[in-house]
Amino acid sequence: MDLQELNERAVSAARRLGADDAVALSANSADSMIRFANNSVSVVNRVEEAELTVYLAKGGKRAIASTSNLEPASVKQFVSELFGSLKGLPKSEYVPLPDRAVRYSPSRLSYDRRLEDVDSELPGLAKEAIDASLEAGGRRAAGVINAGKGTIAIMTSAGTQGIDSRTAITLNIRTFAENEASGHGLSCSSTLSHFDPKEAGRRAGEGARRMKDASEPEAGKYEVLLSPTVASNLIETVAGAASAFSVDAGTSYLAEKVGKKVASPLFSLTDHGVVEGGLGGRVFDDEGVKTRTNKIIDGGVLQGYLHNLTTAKKWKTESTGSAGFVTPHAWNLEVGAGDSSYDEMIAEIKRGIVLTSNWYTRFKNYRTGEFSTVPRDGAYLVENGKVVRSLKGMRAGDDLERLLSSVRLVSKDREWVQWWEVDTPTLCPWLLVDGVTITRAYG
Hints:
This protein is of the alpha+beta class and 443 residues long. The chain has helices spanning 3-17, 72-85, 122-135, 197-210, 228-241, 244-249, 309-314, 342-347, 400-405, and strands at 21-37, 40-58, 61-67, 103-104, 140-156, 161-178, 181-189, 220-226, 269-272, 293-298, 301-302, 332-335, 351-355, 358-365, 370-375, 379-383, 386-390, 394-399, 407-419, 422-440.
């Protein structure tokens, strides 16, 4: 399917109806998936999808909708019905789209042709992960590998056009040595050459082996060493709080803090529209504005918010190339590297806990950033620089600003993280944080 031809069809229909502004975003993807359980491949699947999203504005009213019925007559009817829906809508904070036409070329910074058709290699890659996990001490492994490419094209009523593509391959593996002794491993890459299923499997197997005879910790305050997997889950919520939409909605702990200290001087957070190795992003945002690199936090100081055209007008600034039509958002997050190794960080811990994986992160109060999360898989008690035993049955709680302000060490090694607990691809190091509250999960 020609995506630009599809866009032209939608935008032409909008022009004929008299829309003040129109944007067509068409996308297609081809994704291969292999799932394994009990050390054996259980499902192999390939899915190809296409979708059209249309934004229309007329008389200060706006509407957005998507369809997967891409037949020419259906597209015309879809645009007509969307335009008709504007009559029943109230006027909104309408900001016209840029009236200067721009033509975008693909970046190709994060594209690997080998991932266009990788189906035949997936069983072997899954076997590498499973075998490595068993060699490291696991007994049974389960997980999934997803690989493929996605392409998105844009056309606006002002004549802006562009197309961009990304490839990605991700592995999520969980291994058990006993019923409650589990470990977790990830490998995420935009290229096949940087994908490492053996290392992900080894970590999962080693984590499972070390979790035998795990017990609950004493409740209290601990130094906590967050793996890139855990840290990325929390940092994604920081990026969400940096969206101007969240600030306007009253759900951001970063409100009224631009130019102020919100984290340790060791902590920096940047968003990239396009970056080498990034698993997400593109050269244009949903409004046809060029994406860019935006420093969110630099040396612990909040630099600014992420904006689309609507929030930028309200804040009397410019778009940061972060649209979402409704909410500005991050594309590819990067946490700045430190100068410590993992072993050096462990040696610095007097009384602390290593967390390698987590889930069920929930907020008690978005406005204050108060959250809790449930550690799972590998978790270890450290005393005087030595790992002394494995831990289970606990919950970690804090508020985001206090947590990031207490970052004491940052690792020099970083990893890309994306999985079901981290939607926004994040290049992240290990973080050693002081004073995190740990409670027992049971009783």
